[in-house]
Amino acid sequence: MTIDPCEHEWVKQRTRERVHADLVRLSGAKLDLAPLTEEAGRLIEQAIPFEGGCWHTMDPATLIETSVRTVNLPPHEERITEYEYLHRDYNKFVQLARSPRHSGVLSEATAGDLHRSARYREFIQPAGLLGELRTSFVVDGTCWGSSAFFRAAPTDFTTEERDFAHDLAATLGRSFRTALIHAASTPTAALFGPGLILLDDGCHVESFTEPARSWLAELGFTGEPNQESLPHALLAVAQRARAAAADAVARVPGASGHWIVLHASAASGTQSGRVAVILQSATPASIAPLIAAAYGLTKRERELTELILQGHVTGDIAARLLLSPHTVQEHLKSIFTKTGVRSRRELVGTVFMRHYQPRLQSTGTEPARII
User: Fold this and answer.
1) Cα–Cα distance list, 237 to 80, 123, 333 (Å)
2) Residue 8's CB: how many other CB atoms inside 10 A?
3) From CA 216, how far away is CA 254, in angstroms rounded?
């Protein structure tokens, strides 16, 4: 029986429309990351079949990967983060996040010569795979996650599938944004002091402090730091610091709900390539921009929110930002709508207390007084 090409294309288009609609509904379900990626992968596979894949969360400010989940692939290892951050290649997630089109097919980027890609030579081809489709999940100008899907030879991804992946980027960005904020909205555990991990040039642990073990547990690590592969977020921030020859920072929601800051710096000494990573509780100042971005606030609305959290009244805010009091009130209405509150006090209770107050109580610091 001969299949009509036009009818076949119509079926594929209807499938994409249905999958897109289902993913939009999924973005409003406020799922945790594990069930979110499982259900999103099941839906996407109906329109873009794949043999294996991986999902990443990302720090939206630094575009450093903060977690990874794999599907039908070997576990991530140190060398994968090394190649993502230290080696030049095609369709890096950071590149896609900053490009007008947020998805890319590796064979297209390499002009059909896949061996030009170090990632293909070292990881994709040895795994018996051919096609790679990458997408960065950008919504409101901010990237919250990414995915990479793979196909076995001889089938590759098409430009139509690439464009459909781009169409899904904003929807998946909203889903990942919600999942990350939901994961860190109800802290439960007591905090502990900063921890330090010293890594050699191969990202293997040379030494670590005892508090670092507790922070690693917050990142889901249960083994011995000097014997097993470290959490993806720690490896990623270390490799970014090594690649940039500068400090690198990533903010990650921990298992208990606390935000964790990972700060990596090149370590001095006789051996080159060593990196020191400090793990500690995030301060309100370091998390405020991330929370504001999660609610989709504009740059001006973020400035207003930070001033409100500091206790400033309308007149003060207007003078500081060179706005009229009426304009300040209009911005406040927009902020209230986006965050789902009706007053400044409720805004502080939703945006501030929920995410910051448990940390302030643990350090003895008092929040700003709201007038």
Assistant:
1) 13, 21, 38
2) 10
3) 9
Q: Give the model's pLDDT for residue 5.
A: 64
Q: What is the CATH number of domain 12-183?
A: 3.30.450.40
CA contacts within 13 A on the Cβ side of 83: 16
Do 12-183 and 195-282 come out as alike in CATH topology?
Answer: yes
Between the CA of residue 42 and those of 80, 149, 185, what are the distances in Å?
25, 12, 27
Q: Which of 187, 181, 185 is nearest to 359 (CA)?
A: 187
Q: What are the structure tokens assigned to 335, written together?
A: 């902020």
Q: What is the DSSP string of 266-292?
A: EPPSSSTT-EEEEEEEPPHHHHHHHHH
Sign for the CA dihedral angle at 140, 240, 150, 158 comes to positive
| CATH fold of the domain at 285-363 | Arc Repressor Mutant, subunit A (1.10.10)
In the chain, the percentage of residues whose pLDDT exceeds 90 is: 63
| Beta-ladder partners of 132 | 150
SS3 (DSSP) at 53: strand
Residue 251, Cβ density class (10 Å: 0-12 exposed, 13-18 middle, ≥19 buried): buried
Measured distance CA(219)–CA(158) in Å, rounded: 37
User: What residues in the chain have per-residue pLDDT under 70?
Assistant: 1-7, 183-191, 269-270, 284-285, 350-371
> pLDDT value at position 360?
36
Cα–Cα distance, 273 to 343 (Å, whole number): 51
Per-residue confidence (pLDDT) for residue 350, from 0 to 100: 65
Contact assessment for residue 27 and residue 176, using Cβ atoms and an 8 Å cutoff: no
Domain limits, the chain = 12-183, 195-282, 285-363
- Per the listing, tokens 């020191």 go with 276
pLDDT score for 270:
60
The pTM for the full model equals 0.84
What pLDDT shows up at residue 208?
94
Residue 89's SS3 state is: coil
